[in-house]
Backbone:
């Protein structure tokens, strides 16, 4: 099973912005209940979209730079990137079908 | 759960049949599932997100008897494991419509059709929005409905909490761990919150109270920078510069998919009898979706248990419902 990898401020540009594949990033923190609700859904999708989309998690407590650069004021927030640009933003807990729609849009 | 899809389609051949189907995985649904499964009924719980409902967003539950303090998400997970250990199945999908199918019920979901001998609706409630300019645009950018999720992003800043009930006080107190100042904006001159939460809020040095005041607009370009408020007594308007607005002004039941099927009150709450049965035999509603719910974890659990016992009686007595025999079945 492919799982979302942890990414940090230092690796951000290389891993996320320069990725050839579309990227979904899960902004989370250990104290956030709804993040724990989203995490298993993101893990399932990471497996289903293996080879098509890359999945990352970023801990907003440890990576304040990236979180503030993107104006994250609520978690979970999922950002979908394509060629280094944000193509979609999902704030708060969302059902799996919403996440799939967003990924399909990024792949089309 | 909107009713727009699948309404007119015939039921899929071979739609799986269950004895008891429960819609919604909050405390009421999880408790109903426990009792139905222990009654050896083939039981399915349908949840559109992840189980727990509103308590999954609650940092600490400290009023569930027998459990001094527990994280809401953890409590829900424990309830789920307990119910599943007796055979309850869980399906993560959204319900689009419910229809009568002879003596049984047809549940349309995104994952297919399901037949139920008895149906228990525990779909809970969702928070209300203020409905003011700026609110939708700035959601996730300083407008929040979950302090436990977002408060940490406002360390050292000034924020507002809107509302005067338990949720507003709970989340306001939590937010004060991070924010420098928490202004409680409330449209009345007294709180509705329980006495113990009022005591804690009034004693909190970071919290202040702006009475008789409503929010008219949330201001910000990309991020919240202020709210425009109006004093309802004097009519005076002013702006409060701040970085976040946490909104806790009540909730509304998730019953759109039942419209036209069961009797509801004007607020969309399902009307039930003391056995949680609706005006439709074999269809039950428990927890925050029903009229006059106490809206507590403990009362919702009680509702769910009651509904499951009534459903058990309904199924084992071949779709007949009589309040007397239900009561005697319980005292056996």
Residues:
């Amino acid at each position: 099973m492919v799982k979302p990898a942890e990414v940090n401020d230092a690796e951000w540009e290389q891993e996320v912005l320069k990725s050839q594949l579309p990227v979904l990033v899960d902004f989370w923190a250990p104290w956030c209940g709804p993040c724990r609700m989203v995490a298993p859904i993101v893990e399932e999708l990471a497996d289903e979209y293996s080879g098509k989309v890359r999945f990352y998690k970023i801990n907003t407590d440890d990576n304040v730079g990236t979180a503030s650069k993107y104006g994250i004021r609520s978690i979970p927030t999922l950002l979908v990137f394509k060629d280094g640009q944000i193509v979609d933003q999902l704030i708060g807990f969302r059902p799996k079908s919403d996440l799939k729609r967003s990924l399909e849009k990024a792949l089309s | 759960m909107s009713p727009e899809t699948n309404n007119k389609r015939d039921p899929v051949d071979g739609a799986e049949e269950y004895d008891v189907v429960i819609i919604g995985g909050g405390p009421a649904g999880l408790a109903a599932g426990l009792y139905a499964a222990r009654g050896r009924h083939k039981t399915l719980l349908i949840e559109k997100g992840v189980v727990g409902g509103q308590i999954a967003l609650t940092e600490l539950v400290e009023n569930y008897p027998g459990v001094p303090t527990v994280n809401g998400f953890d409590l829900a997970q424990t309830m789920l494991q307990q119910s599943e250990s007796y055979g309850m199945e869980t399906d993560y999908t959204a319900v689009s419509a419910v229809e009568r199918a002879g003596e049984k019920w047809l549940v349309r979901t995104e994952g297919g059709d399901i037949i139920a001998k008895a149906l228990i609706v525990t779909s809970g409630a969702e928070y209300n929005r203020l409905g003011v300019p700026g609110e939708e645009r700035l959601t996730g950018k300083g407008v929040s409905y979950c302090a436990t999720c977002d408060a940490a992003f406002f360390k050292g800043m000034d924020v507002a909490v809107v509302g005067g009930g338990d949720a507003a006080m709970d989340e306001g107190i939590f937010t004060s761990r991070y924010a420098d100042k928490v202004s409680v904006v409330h449209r009345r001159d007294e709180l509705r919150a329980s006495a113990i939460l009022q005591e804690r809020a009034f004693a909190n040095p970071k919290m202040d109270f702006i009475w008789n005041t409503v929010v008219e607009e949330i201001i910000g370009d990309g991020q919240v920078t202020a709210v425009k408020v109006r004093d309802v007594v004097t009519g005076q308007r002013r702006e409060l510069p701040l970085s976040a607005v946490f909104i806790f002004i009540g909730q509304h039941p998730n019953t759109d998919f039942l419209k036209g099927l069961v009797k509801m009150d004007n607020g969309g709450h399902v009307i039930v009898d003391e056995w949680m049965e609706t005006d439709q035999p074999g269809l039950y509603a428990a927890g925050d979706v029903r009229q006059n719910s106490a809206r507590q974890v403990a009362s919702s659990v009680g509702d769910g248990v009651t509904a499951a016992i009534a459903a058990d009686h309904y199924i084992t007595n071949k779709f007949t419902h009589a309040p007397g025999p239900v009561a005697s079945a319980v005292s056996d």
Chain A is about 35% helix and 25% strand.
